[in-house]
Specification:
The complex is a heterodimer. In chain A, a hairpin with a 5-residue loop joins strand 19 and strand 20. A six-stranded mixed sheet of chain A has the order 2-9-8-7-3-6. In chain A, about 30% of the residues lie in helices and about 15% in strands. Chain A is α/β, with parallel strands linked by helices. Chain B is mostly helical. Chain B has one domain. In chain B, helix 2 packs antiparallel against helix 3. Chain B starts with a helix and ends in a 7-residue tail after the last helix. The chains are: A alpha/beta, B mainly alpha. The interface between A and B is large, with 52 and 46 residues.
């Protein structure tokens, strides 16, 4: 080949490489924040030149700092281990115990089930348990961690091969190991090695996920024999007890589905026990006459047959306990801690018996192809169970069955009953239920104290129940005090659950013989009923109603026990009940118009008149009479059918589904909305100011419309800076409810005096280590939830993250939601109070806990836009109540401080046919006006880009455009991401120029976002000298170098080519 | 015409294939942009312009050596710029689809429509990149047969 050709080719090659280098560089810069998180780099840094008066608002506790003020990573990890251990010990629920537990130290035990070696510690994707962990073997028999060899694993798809592969959640661990006091057992090494070997092919991980066709992957006896045929010989030496672990994982974006189990496993449903699991239990029985089952799952595994099996001695529900939580489980097993948890979800004998299960999964409108033009708008679910979610269904139907009303004993919805519906057959373990190693006497200490007051239109009505708890057993223990209530119901009236949790508290550790009076404050609003047909007399409908009549309150070991106590107090003979009952544990009171008005709660705590805001949530609102919601007036006749073939005929509904919500105005008078005003007021001066402080008006007026729009457009992990008010682009948010998803050595706040250096031996510790949310809820311990919030707040200081995408606050509508591990409970009161305590604790360290997904993210199947249809009563009394409690946080309100959560993430899903992100009823009327929410309300990732005007005028404060923020940098409002608007509008900095409502909305959004940030620990770093500097990360250096080298080489080869060509010609 | 064809050498064929791949890349980009409203490419216009320029220059790189001889400066510029155009078009498609791709391989793996869009996108990306690579190979070789 001639030189000319070689130089020509090389010039072409270099021009290609140069182009690639430029493209790669542009892409990296566009997504620099995301790249930083993924690679652990820091491409930009917030720097404050004047170090005076910074880092003094929020500081970590002294015990987590070294003498020089830097962070003590060892102390931090030890504290995390201690707290996770406490979380697991308090949340673990003892469901059955014939006396085998506690099992004394020194016992020789054998573990069965592959999950005994690969336990489910967290959720898959989202809230994984990260890093070094303590396995069950270790917790039971060791006394020092082995993080170097035990790092949690996770599955991912190899993009090149499409194969699912297992990898470690963090890199090698060369940091500290920690001493602990385990259970002191000796564990059969034969079975341990067999399961370890089998897991090489089974691909289990500590963070596995469910799937549409699930296989729990439990090895058969034959497979066990295949590894070691003589394994039974080890039983004699390790036969003091058998411990069997049964696991079912949870995960983001995956569900279990009805009938969704791999064929041939011996089970018809994915959460039922398979043949191999039953065989593992049979082996356990062979090994020992003491068999203990650990249920390692956030979902209600179908364990009814184990409950009734006399050869099963004990059952413990351990949830997903987190990286170190098996220490807490070991504490329970060996009796260091007496169990005190109660189930956060009811455990039906068969999950399919829940009415919600009749409408769960993948449903598309029959005529979607003909009428739906918008992406992710063709799927729906009809939540025909109405308010009867979880225990509210089973207990209410039980109550009506006992009283012989409402056709409750009919056959509809029977799965385990012999003939007519039978609670005892249908339910294995009830909501809130849990046993202890000790015994407690409980009694009301005096009559409850009712307190009703009215200020202007707002009625506040509470009842304080004082319950004296005495430990009458032989070991120390804690006891939760769960207060339930029942409102009067008339057949055919508004739907009411026969029993609802109202609030709860927990004793401290009571020594044998010791007593404690636990005071539980109940907000009576939560026993009121939402009546969407109530005529407010002002043209609107819908209000909370307190029906006059007899109200019952009771405590009990769970909802069923409390209901039995109420039934007993109503004069029903105990022998007619399922379980025990004591009328003394119930309290009856008459509520009349004089004591508490029927419309006492017609105004919210902010003074906003309540009325229907979500009419469109109900399918019947558009196409009347097509859906029958479950009613206790006729259980048998209204038990939900499966609505699998709905056809859209309402044009209004079709328009909503196609994204027609809001038209951007072009000729409004906007002169009254001030932008770009000259002032010296800067953002850093707003730290800690009230939302209504007049300085906010001045600050917001300084911003330009474009700046406010940027703030609303490019939210998510980063916020863009706004020059006029002195904010700088800042990385702000990360997952998740079980810890901050940033390694210690990748802090976004390396300027902090307590920063842990990248060279720290424990630097690659990843703080997402805590157990899943149901475990916290099951503790029924508000103090524990607050402690977890505080600790994760401390983590946020060490990692420089002021906003947390968590905790999950959706409702466990049923056991098949793959993401139940991320949400607390089926009960909104338990969820709401747990989240509230968590958020208040986090905020003490300046961390904004932003719960997700507001709201109605009731399943993962079709989550990107599925339309759940329900009544407004159901929406308000179930899903929304959890958020209401957390956002109102009245427990922590003072004269000077309106407490509450300062952030949230909005659901991908719709409410009815309307996207949650554009629902003004949801985002403004209910969230802000009724509940008084002030703060950061972000869309889920990249959601609803095509509804720009609708989203930003609904009350949503910002988009999550993860990785795309940057003001006056790489991003623009004419970004292609917003190029396809459902309303045909063209997004630009001028799009709202003629729309006064939209301008006001983005100004209000800026107010909310900035207010949230101003109350966060980001303000630790702000003063007038704060600015951002770009840092030279390895990837930035790499692409700069690549551009330079390829640019030079392109020029060199081009010149050589020309010279060679000239030579050629001359020759 | 047959005389012209007889005159062409390896480099010209590479350039012709590259031009065809450019057309495939543009068509695939248009298809994946029109599959759903949600995944329409906001920068489709730029992609088409870059693609068309790349095709025109690739064709020029076939024609020009017939006039000026092998490895002439004009066709070399045409080849280099054409490569840059194809690569830029690839970059445009990729930058628009990177969020989709990131989602599909993480939190949004069940997005069946997204996967369909992704597969067509891959065709577009592959066409532009392979087109550029073929032109690089062609640049090392002769475009017309030398007597």
């Amino acid at each position: 080949m001639k030189k000319t050709g070689i130089f020509r080719g090389l010039a072409a090659l270099m021009s290609f490489l140069l182009s690639i280098s430029v493209i790669v560089g542009n892409t990296l810069e566009s997504f620099s924040t995301t790249i930083d998180t993924a690679l652990g780099t820091q491409s930009e840094m917030m720097v404050t030149d004047d170090k005076d008066a910074v880092y003094d608002r929020f500081t970590p506790p002294a015990e987590l700092l070294n003498e020089d003020g830097t962070g003590n990573s060892h102390a931090l990890i030890q504290a995390a281990m201690d707290l996770n251990r406490e979380q697991a010990a308090e949340g673990t629920v003892l469901l059955k115990n014939n006396g085998v537990l506690p099992l004394a130290s020194g016992a020789n035990v054998t573990l069965f089930g592959i999950r005994s070696q690969v336990p489910i510690l967290g959720s898959s994707f989202g809230v994984k348990a990260f890093g070094g962990f303590i396995n069950l073997d270790e917790a039971l028999q060791n006394n020092v961690t082995d993080f170097a060899h035990h790092i949690t694993t996770s599955l991912s798809q190899n993009w090149a091969t499409g194969q699912i592969e297992r990898g470690y959640t963090t890199g090698d661990w060369s940091g500290d190991e920690f001493e602990f006091d385990g259970a002191g057992y000796k564990v059969n090494p034969t079975m341990t090695s067999i399961y370890t070997k089998l897991n090489e092919t089974y691909l289990h991980t500590e963070n596995a996920g469910p799937s549409e066709e699930y296989d729990p992957g439990e090895p058969s006896v034959k497979e066990i024999e295949g590894v070691n045929a003589d394994f039974r010989n080890s039983f004699a030496q390790y036969g003091d007890a058998s411990i069997v672990v049964i696991g079912r994982p949870s995960a983001e974006s995956e569900d279990y589905l009805p009938g969704g189990i791999v064929a041939g496993l011996g089970a018809e449903e994915p959460i039922a026990l398979t043949t191999n699991e039953k065989d593992a239990i049979a082996l356990a029985k062979e090994c020992s006459d003491k068999v203990i089952i650990l249920v390692n799952s956030a979902s209600a595994v179908e364990i009814g047959e184990l409950k009734n099996d006399p050869e099963i001695d004990a059952i413990l529900w351990i949830g997903a306990p987190g990286s170190y939580g098996l220490l807490g489980v070991a504490d329970i097993l060996c009796g260091k801690v007496s169990p005190s948890g109660g189930l956060a979800d009811i455990f039906p004998t068969y999950n399919m018996s829940a009415p919600a299960m009749q409408n769960m999964g993948n449903f598309s409108y029959k005529n979607a192809a003909d009428v739906i033009t918008r992406e992710n708008s063709s799927n729906y679910i009809i939540e025909a169970e109405g308010i009867y979610v979880g225990y509210r269904y089973y207990e209410t139907r039980y109550y009506d069955a006992v009283l012989g009303q409402g056709n409750a004993t009919g056959t509809a919805g029977t799965y385990a009953s012999g003939s007519g519906w039978d609670y005892d057959a249908e339910v294995a373990y009830g909501f809130g239920y849990g046993l202890s190693y000790t015994a407690f006497d409980m009694e009301f200490e005096g009559e409850p104290v009712f307190n009703v007051s009215k200020k202007d239109d707002v009625t506040t009505a509470t009842a304080t129940f004082n319950v004296k708890v005495t430990n009458t057993g032989n070991v120390p223990g804690k006891k939760s005090v769960q207060i339930y209530g029942q409102a009067p119901y008339e057949r055919g009236g508004i739907e009411k659950s026969a029993i609802v949790l109202l609030n709860y508290g927990k004793t401290g550790l009571l020594q044998p013989g010791e007593s404690e009076v636990v005071s539980v404050d109940v907000d009576l609003q939560y026993i009121a009923t939402y009546d969407s047909s109530y005529d407010n007399g002002d043209g609107t409908y819908g209000s909370y109603i307190v029906d006059p009549g007899t109200y019952y309150f009771a405590f009990g070991n769970g909802a069923h026990d409390a209901l039995n106590n109420i039934i007993a107090s109503q004069g029903v003979a105990v022998e007619n009940l399922v379980g025990e009952a004591n009328a003394d544990y119930a309290f009856k009171t008459e509520i009349t118009e004089d004591t508490l008005s029927r419309t006492a709660f017609a105004y919210s705590k902010t003074g906003t008149k309540i009325s229907n805001q979500l009419d469109y949530a109900d399918w019947n609102h558009f196409q009347e009479g097509e859906v029958t919601y479950l009613s206790r007036a006729d259980w048998n006749g209204t038990y939900p059918k499966t609505y699998s073939d709905m056809t859209l005929t309402s044009q209004e509904m079709i328009d909503y589904l196609n994204g027609k919500y809001y038209t951007i105005a072009t000729d409004d008078d906007t002169s009254g909305i001030e932008w770009g005003k000259k002032s010296d007021l800067m953002f850093y001066e707003m730290a800690g100011l009230d939302f209504d402080d007049e300085k906010w008006d001045e600050l917001l007026s300084e911003m330009t419309l474009e700046e406010a729009q940027y703030l609303a457009t490019f939210g998510g992990p980063s916020i863009p800076g706004a020059e006029s008010i002195g904010t700088v682009e800042t990385y702000m948010t990360e997952n998740a409810g079980n810890g901050i998803a940033v390694n210690l050595n990748a802090s976004k706040d390396t300027e902090a005096p307590w920063n842990i250096s990248p060279e720290d031996p424990n630097g690659n510790w990843h703080p997402e280590v805590f157990g899943s949310s149901p475990l916290t809820a099951a503790s029924f311990n508000p103090d524990l939830a607050k402690k977890l919030g505080e600790f994760i707040g401390i983590e946020s200081l060490f990692t420089g993250i002021p906003i947390l995408w968590g905790p999950g606050l959706n409702t466990h509508r049923h056991a098949y939601n793959g993401r139940n591990g991320e949400y607390y409970s089926e009960d909104p009161i338990l969820s709401g109070y747990t989240a509230m305590e968590f958020a208040i604790g986090a905020l003490e360290y300046g961390l904004i806990a932003a719960p997700k997904h507001y709201a109605f993210n009731d399943q993962e199947t079709n989550r990107a836009g599925v339309a759940p249809f329900m009544t407004e009563q159901r929406a308000r009394e179930v899903e929304l109540r959890a958020y209401q409690i957390a956002f109102e946080a009245t427990k922590y309100d003072t004269e000077d401080n309106d407490a509450g959560m300062r952030g949230l993430m909005i659901s991908f899903s719709k409410i009815g046919p309307v996207e949650c992100t554009v629902s003004t009823g949801l985002m403004t009327e209910i969230l802000k006006n009724e509940w008084g929410f002030k703060g950061y309300a972000v869309t889920d990732i990249y959601d609803d880009f095509d509804l720009y005007g609708s989203v930003l005028t609904s009350g949503t404060t910002c988009y999550d455009t993860r990785g795309m923020s940057g003001f006056y940098a790489d991003t623009t409002l004419t970004s292609p991401r917003f190029a396809n608007q459902a309303d045909g509008s063209a997004i630009s900095a001028a799009v709202f120029a003629g729309d006064a409502n939209a301008q006001q909305a983005v100004k209000e959004s800026a107010h909310n976002v900035l207010y949230a940030i101003a109350s966060s620990n980001l303000m630790n770093r702000y003063n007038e000298t704060t600015h951002v500097v770009k840092l030279n990360t390895w990837w930035r250096t790499a692409y700069h170098s690549a551009i330079a080298v390829t640019g030079i080489l392109t020029a060199v080869f081009a010149i050589l080519f020309v010279l060679s060509k000239r030579k050629e010609k001359e020759a | 015409m047959s005389e012209f064809m007889k005159k062409q050498s390896v480099g010209a064929y590479f350039n012709v294939i590259a031009a065809i791949l450019g057309i495939v890349g543009i068509i695939a980009a248009c298809v994946c942009s029109s599959m759903t409203v949600t995944y329409a490419l906001g920068n489709l216009g730029i992609i088409i312009v870059q693609g068309v320029l790349g095709i025109v220059l690739a064709c020029a790189a076939v024609v020009l050596p017939n006039i000026f001889g092998n490895h002439d400066i004009c066709s070399t510029i045409a080849v280099c710029v054409s490569i840059a155009m194809f690569t830029a078009a690839f970059g445009q498609v990729l930058s628009e689809r990177i969020l989709l791709i990131a989602g599909l391989f993480s939190y949004d793996s069940v997005n069946t429509v997204g996967w369909q869009v992704f597969y067509v996108t891959v065709v577009s990306i592959a066409a532009f990149i392979i087109g550029a690579l073929l032109m690089i190979i062609g640049a090392f070789t002769r475009s017309v047969k030398e007597r």
